Amino acid sequence: MTLDEMLRAIFTFDNYSELLPLVQNSIWAGAVLGLLGGLIGTFVMMRDLAFAVHGIAELSFAGAAFALLIGANVVFGSLVGSVIAALLLGLMGIRARDRNSIIGVIMPFGLGLGILFLALYEGRAANKFGLLTGQIVSVDQVQLTLLAGCAVVVMAALGAIWRPLTFASVDPELAEARGVPVRGLSLVFMFLLGVSVALSIQVVGALLVLALLITPAAAALKVTSSPRLVVLLSVAFACTSVVGGILLALGGRIPISPYVTTISFVIYLVCRIISWHRSTRSTRSEARAVQPI
Amino acid sequence: MANDGGAAARPVVSLRSASLSFGRRTLWHDLDLDIRPGEFLAVLGPNGSGKTSLLRVLLGLQELDSGRATVNGHALHRGSRAFGYIPQQKSFAAETPLRARDLVGLGVDGHRWGFRGGGATYRRTVDALLEKVGASSYADAPVGRLSGGEQQRLRAAQALATDPQVLLCDEPLLSLDLHHQQAVSRLINDQCRDHNTAVVFVTHEINPIIDYVDRVLYLAGGQFRVGRPQDVMTSDVLSELYNSRVDVIHNNGRIVVVGLPDATTHHHHAEAAQP
């Protein structure tokens, strides 16, 4: 494949105006998931759960693969897998160190199970691949309604616990002293996280969930520490990545995930550069003005 | 001093024959203690003597094994607004998505459900708290970038948010430099004197607060002594508590304790001293 052919495979905009209406559902689904990912992602970063998201995704993949094998609903399978994984982590790993080793143990097991189920599955190969890399182009009206419904429920629950969850995430000692149910909130959040991971897998696949749940929030945290702005930016970044990815992937024959991950990575990179630029500037100005304490 | 914890005022906090064990080890038993408004009580003792546990009992996070603890005559419960709590200094991660004012704001209403409306009252409350602890100049700075001393001022502001009757401080000066130690302890003392707030100050080092302390509760080896600093911080009393020869030297308004079991001067590790 020459470079020109490769570029044509990656960026094709033939018949774009005719294709666009066909994927309207996918774009809406992408926007909903971007919104959800951006919101959940801020708490994932605050609670240092990036690795946990990855672990949950692998188990979600195993659940989906099992559902595929027995002919059940794949979304439901992935939902069950990730919610079990998330609650397990919430119950077992209170301290970050324990949690990480538990995830390290669970993750390969989940992935292995998933591969086993896929190997046993005798249906269409594209179905298998879609679980790992995403398959948003095929979203129909029913799926979209289901997805949006789940997302709304998760967001409403997240909204209800927003403030005490923030308190418990950044300042658990004081939150506990103030009577905030720190442990209960942690479990509720893990449940919401499990559902969000399962929903996101439908778009970007199990391998790339981090691009939707971690990267946007991580990028936002690089450029601001205002709690509101972090959430707004994180949502904006996530939506841009998903919707942008779908629009770019439209004409070509490549799955959408590489587009999504690349956009989200570039956003992160830009935010990092901004933050680095700022910190070198502020160190210089601090050095100039030596103040007595 | 407007109020030096005189016996006239009714106690805010009362412990009656309070006992607490940790596994098979008794931390303290038959502890009777009244804490009065405006009183500055220092809680001293080696690690593992139950100083922090005492605070946890008052915060309603830990049950007494026996005895009774009350605040304003009522049983203790979690999340009581009568208590303000200043935890040990712990650094926030560099990318914590909070500015100084947001951290203080969590102290104001972080325990409530839902979103914050973001009203003018909230902003005024937070501004007033920041002003009170002298943190207005870095109100919009990210907490992750603040020094330990600056963060502890914010802790104080959080603790004062409920306008508490009792301030519970758990080693609030730990890992601060001398300048910030003085600043933070002065801040706590001002609240104690000017607003008649009782202070329970857990520390392993009495000297930074020696000028403010009304009474000392010394916990060691499953026993305790309560009294004025000059009565408790003596060679005789501490030798008895530790069950071995301890010398207390008064030097220039400072107290130096020499000969603590299994430790040099201040960082007492008294697990070995337990019988």
Describe this structure as you would to a colleague.
The complex is a heterodimer of chains A (293) and B (275). Chain A has 293 residues and is an all-alpha fold. Chain A has a domain at 20-210: ABC transporter involved in vitamin B12 uptake, BtuC. Chain A is 80% helix and 0% strand. Chain A contains 15 helices and no strands. Chain A has helices spanning 3-10, 16-19, 24-46, 50-70, 74-92, 96-120, 125-133, 141-160, 162-170, 172-177, 182-204, 210-213, 215-223, 227-249, 257-288. Mean pLDDT of chain A is 87; it is low at 289-293. Chain B is α/β, with parallel strands linked by helices and 275 residues long. Chain B has one domain (13-273): Rossmann fold, CATH 3.40.50.300. In chain B, the strands form three sheets. In chain B, strands 6-7-8-3-9-10 form a six-stranded mixed β-sheet, sandwiched between helices. Chain B has a four-stranded antiparallel β-sheet with strand order 2-1-4-5, covered by helices on one side. In chain B, strands 11-12 form a two-stranded antiparallel ribbon. In chain B, a hairpin with a 2-residue loop joins β9 and β10. In chain B, 44% of the residues are buried. Mean pLDDT of chain B is 87; it is low at 1-6 and 263-275. Chain A binds chain B through residues 42, 45-46, 48, 159-164, 166-167, 170-171, 173-180, 220-222, 224-227, 230, 293, and chain B through 59-61, 77-80, 83, 85, 87, 90, 92-93, 95-99, 102-103, 106-107, 109-116, 142-144, 155, 158, 179.
